[in-house]
Amino acid sequence: MKLSICIPVYNFDVNDLVNDLQNQIISNKLDAEIILIDDASNTEFINKNKNLEETVSQFVFLDKNIGRSKIRNLFLNYSHSEYLLFLDCDGKIISHTFLKNYIDFINTKNPDIVFGGRKVNDVKPSAEYGLRWRFAVERENLPLKQRLKSPYLDFQTNNFIVRKSVLENNPFNETITQYGYEDLIFAKDLFKNKVFIDHIDNPVFNNDVETNEVFLAKADQSAKSLSQLIKSDKDVERISKIKLAKAYSRLKKTGGIFLYRLIYKLSKPYLQKKLLGGNASLKALDFYKLGQLINYMTKP
Description:
single chain; alpha/beta; 13 helices; 10 strands; about 15% strand; globular
């Protein structure tokens, strides 16, 4: 069985990641190809990664940034395998048998799609990076046993394998051009079409620790992306099952939008300060994201 390892690249040095994967391919004598697509990175990172053209099977450089959904669908044009392994460019391989674990699982279970998991450092970082770390620990880095209880809700796109025909029939939603919710929408589409998501204990390490400022900006962008989905997506049922969208819908039905927006407006400066300090609870982050969503929904 041949495997296509697909890595969307954006403003990150992927030399270590590619070399680790290449070493596993060679040492285990695996039939695998590595495909990189650079999503219009800064020149600095293009220069850092350009030498990999000689190492990987294909390295495609895009002139214009097309976003996290469209770039994943684009790999279908370059893959020559039945299965595609998608990895985020900021991941770090932490198992010497990472690729073999996946291939053994495929040969045994013949899955349509399987998620391997993710990890971050167990040691709490400085307060400047505390918000992203807390979110990862409490909501992303879940053990296999817990993920198996809610296989669709706990699916992420940083480290998963999908059968090529499944992705062709269930592509990522390309209306999502900015950060946010492309993984959850993809999982909900699979659920709707009765494609089962399997899980395995085969994590990668999140190698890019974001500051509170960067992560809060991404939280704001995800709220904006969700507002665009709510306004434009015709599949209302799919959107309504997203936790933040459900909270918004509940407020709208009960007439609580105006009051929430007023409270949020008054508390936003304090809330932002707390979140940027790195020690706020994730409930505070949820309150912030809902406030931002309401703001975006009231804009034309």
